[in-house]
Amino acid sequence: MSSGFKTTSQRIADRFTFGWITPSLISVVLGSLVVLLCATLAQVSFGAYQLTLAEAWHGIFDPDVIFSLEAWGTFLLGHPLPKWFSRTTLVVWNIRFPRIIVGLLVGSNLAVSGAIFQAVTRNELASPYILGVSQGAGLVIMLIVMFFASLQPILPILAAIGGAIAFLLVYAIAWDNGANPIRLVLAGVIVGTVFGSVQRGLFFFVDDLGTIMAARTWMAGSLLGTDWAQVRIALPFSIISLTLALAVSRQLNVLLLGEETAKTLGMSVEKIRFGVSAIAVLCASAAVAVAGLVGFVGLIVPHMVRTIVGSDYKQLLVGCLFLGPAILVGADVAARLALSPIQLPVGVIMGIFGGPYFLYLMRKKSNLGEI
Amino acid sequence: MAQSIDDHDTDAVNSPETTEDSETDIVVSAEDLSLAYPSSDDIVVACDDLRIPRGQITALIGPNGSGKSTLLKALSNHLQPHSGTVSLEGRTVQEYDRKEFARKLSRLSQENDSPGDITVEDLVLHGRYPYRGFFDGVSEEDEDAVERAIELAGVEHLRESSVQDLSGGQKQLVWTAVVLAQETDVLLLDEPTTFLDLKHQLQVMETIHRLNEQRAITIVVVLHDIEQAAHNADHLFALKDGAIEARGEPADVVTEGFLKDIFEIEADVQSEPSLRIHPQRPAQDE
């Protein structure tokens, strides 16, 4: 009897320690990696300076660059370019590859942010874009880009403040003895529209045409012209916010049980909700700071992952970390190459495909939005 | 089994000796309590004095809307009293840290919600929330507690099932297992049998008795069925319009006059061989 109990308890231990690595999660991760690799190769080889796929492959996996401290000093710390960089290396590593890294960070941040907001609001329709967080962050970024350029290095933090204000506003407007999903979405759309209008209004206070063009591209959500400077802005905040997000996955699971149960289990629901929302706002802001307003990633990716791996947040967030980049980088390839030589903003592609997906969700779910 | 509860809670005073002295040993109490919901100022429940004896099964009964569930919410610190205090083991419930409180008292609410695809085992593990630090993994104690809870609630065979595949009765038992995994000294249950078929009603009541006898857990249960309450509880509180109108042992409380006053029904009460209620008709308004 006691040995029987031992094996049961051992089995539980294994289940709780490794059980979350399920075949479905592995397939999401592997599938995403394949998409990501193909997108990367396409992105790196095509363009004004054409490379063959083999050249692109060797360019990316060039050990002389990958294992060179000097090269990484250039990329991550902004040191001057090493003189030994060949032309191919320059094109691959200094022009095309950073765009992919930025796409990776933006995709994972937006997906994780959406997943967290969905747990906080217990609403499958929640995402940083729909809740107005992106626009709140965007307004601050626009102000900085136009008027306070010296504050650029701490852009994500300031953007997060804007995003947080927008989220609190949305929550306050939607609150009526609890925040129901539909009210939240409506409030988010309203706050987002107002913030968006103010952003567009700002255009008329700027004379410099270059700034206006940059701001316009940015508002559409684009990775055009992103390089290592953007990586340097987004990377530290992404590492912090994504690590925190994974660390709170169990709290998110308990939030899914509802406020009353979470309280009974001893959770300080308001504090935890506030804390995880802050993480989600930071994620979204880091993304918005470098890529502008890319919609629907935070909505679609968590939904796709949830359909495959289920509602457990540990699996869901890990899945989002992989599928988010795959979708965003893939969409960016389409945005850059589909109508070449015209480069569309990736936000346009996400909107064109994301909108119908949102409609499909609306039609399919009988009780709209509830997880 | 009771031993292992004390391992977690060094200051638990839950030994069999103290349960003997039930008249004076009060575990949960409320004084000058008045309760209102945040959205309005209407007082829903008012009671001067409520004492829950340790180690016993106490049932709250009363007609619909009499404030039973509201009272239970206040006892479990889900509802801030409009005035007055609720105390657990001598300290007001607000003084407790949330997790510390959740290690001493748990409440099973009437309706529970969870993602459909979660397995029973994973759901029961959430019952260990108050024992785990922010970043803690699953300890051996947690595993053992989950194991005990699943066994006590009698849901071993459902362990691997998804919650969405369970019947209403099975879900109720599984949620019972969740609060059992909290390993508290006090357990509040809000109408645990109301929506269940007879078999599951009996199963739930059996589990309640097992907990009370084997682990000396104090139980406060809201019951809809007066007869069920009378059969299972050591102690009854009857509420009407937010006030406690009667209290005491079932045999003393449940009388024909009582049923007329509280529930507004004409009924015959038969006390031998066991308490039986034969409802006749709604009482006439005078």
Automatic annotation (TrEMBL), chain A:
Q: Describe its membrane topology.
A: Multi-pass membrane protein
**What family name appears in the similarity comment?**
Belongs to the binding-protein-dependent transport system permease family. FecCD subfamily.
One Pfam family, short name: FecCD
Q: What is this protein called?
A: Cobalamin import system permease protein BtuC
Q: How does it assemble?
A: The complex is composed of two ATP-binding proteins (BtuD), two transmembrane proteins (BtuC) and a solute-binding protein (BtuF).
Give the location in the cell: Cell membrane
Keywords, ordered alphabetically: Cell membrane, Membrane, Transmembrane, Transmembrane helix, Transport
Q: Which organism is it from?
A: Haloarcula mannanilytica
Q: From what superkingdom does this record's organism come?
A: Archaea
UniProtKB/TrEMBL annotation, chain B:
The record places domain ABC transporter at 28-266
Keyword Oxidoreductase on entry: no
The superkingdom listed in its UniProt entry is: Archaea
For region Disordered, the annotated ranges are: 1-24
Q: Per the annotation, which location comes first and is thus the protein's main one?
A: membrane
Q: Which GO terms describe its molecular function?
A: ABC-type vitamin B12 transporter activity; ATP binding; ATP hydrolysis activity
Q: Which reaction does it catalyse?
A: an R-cob(III)alamin(out) + ATP + H2O = an R-cob(III)alamin(in) + ADP + phosphate + H(+)
| Coiled-coil regions listed | none
Q: According to the UniProt entry, which residue ranges have a biased composition of type Basic and acidic residues?
A: 1-11
Q: Spell out the GO cellular component terms annotated for this protein, sorted alphabetically and separated by semicolons.
A: plasma membrane
Quote the SMART domains the UniProt record gives.
AAA
Give the record's GO biological process terms: monoatomic ion transport
Q: Which UniProt keywords apply?
A: ATP-binding, Cell membrane, Ion transport, Iron, Membrane, Nucleotide-binding, Transport
- The EC number(s) this enzyme carries: 7.6.2.8
Specify the protein's topology with respect to the membrane: Peripheral membrane protein
Subcellular location per UniProt equals: Cell membrane
This chain's function reads: Required for corrinoid utilization. Probably part of the ABC transporter complex BtuCDF involved in cobalamin (vitamin B12) import. Probably responsible for energy coupling to the transport system.
| Quaternary data | The complex is composed of two ATP-binding proteins (BtuD), two transmembrane proteins (BtuC) and a solute-binding protein (BtuF).
- Check the record and name the PANTHER family matching this protein: IRON(3+)-HYDROXAMATE IMPORT ATP-BINDING PROTEIN FHUC (PTHR42771)
Q: What is this protein called?
A: Cobalamin import ATP-binding protein BtuD
Provenance organism = Haloarcula mannanilytica
